[in-house]
Amino acid sequence: MSSTLILLRQILIMFLLMIAGYCLRKKQLLSLEGASSVSNLMLYICGPAIMILSFDTSFSYLRLQNMGIAFLFSVLITLVSIFLAKLFMSSEQTLEQFGIVFCNSGFIGLPLVQNILGTECVFYLTIYMAVFTLFVWTYGIYLISKGKTKIKLSKAFLNPAMFSVFIGFFLFCTPFTLPDIVHETFQLLGDCNTPLGMIVLGSYLANSSSVHIFTSKEGYKVSFFRLIVVPLCTVFVMMLLPMQYYDIRMTLLIANSTPVGVMLAMFSQMYAGDFEYGARIVSLSTLLSLISIPLVLSMTNILW
């Protein structure tokens, strides 16, 4: 299956789930408080389960080396994204800055990596997601709360997502593996991540007119930087890495080509921001990614 068809399928699934959340909210079957609780379930349970599973594989020194390389380049690309967001957005546009920096590497990136590069490359995507988590729980929260919540290193490492990375790394470095019943349980929890996230996003959208999704100039500006500028910068940054690390190159590029992360809407609600505006940006960038991701991947074949 081509990357375009994979992307089209994922976006169709995403919007069908969003419609379900939209209808639940309109029928008063899902309250904003309920949506917030579901968001917490995703952040504290479902997401960590996926990350632990990706580390549940046999150890090798080559994989360990590649893990370090993926980690360093993930940090570098994230810092470049932060620089771009600060350069082209004002200090007051914190939601827009968050949207440029933090992407939807899980729902869109995971199936693309699996189908284009193979399941073994999901390991590198998890390293990126670990870096993503580190920045979200520090810089991301600070940004969304407009400085009201101070950055604490304890939040960067003492949260469920990072605990899952530590547990996963332990499994990777030791002969231990998850028992089958635990593996299956984590698999089920991980499978809940996508539908729950889209249902929550749909419930957010139910609180505003859907036509506003396509009328925000700032939404298009954020989408342009998130879907075009950041991926192109990623292409050039990854050229610092020799072609023998092609799998790492492509995995990080796919991750950084994905649209604005659903966490923009979730964190906006959790920290009393404009969650409706955040949800509209997520929806617009997701639609536009149908065009941008195949375009970026095709351009990569020329530049690399």
From TrEMBL:
Parts of the chain that traverse the membrane: 6-24, 36-55, 67-85, 97-117, 123-144, 156-178, 224-241, 253-271, 277-297
Membrane-topology annotation of the record: Multi-pass membrane protein
CC per GO annotation: plasma membrane
InterPro entries in UniProt: Mem_transp_PIN-like, Na+/solute_symporter_sf
Principal place of residence: membrane
Keywords for the protein's UniProt record, in alphabetical order: Cell membrane, Membrane, Transmembrane, Transmembrane helix, Transport
Any single Pfam family the record assigns to this protein: Mem_trans
Keyword Transmembrane helix: yes
A GO biological-process term: transmembrane transport
Protein name: AEC family transporter
Gene source species: Faecalicoccus pleomorphus
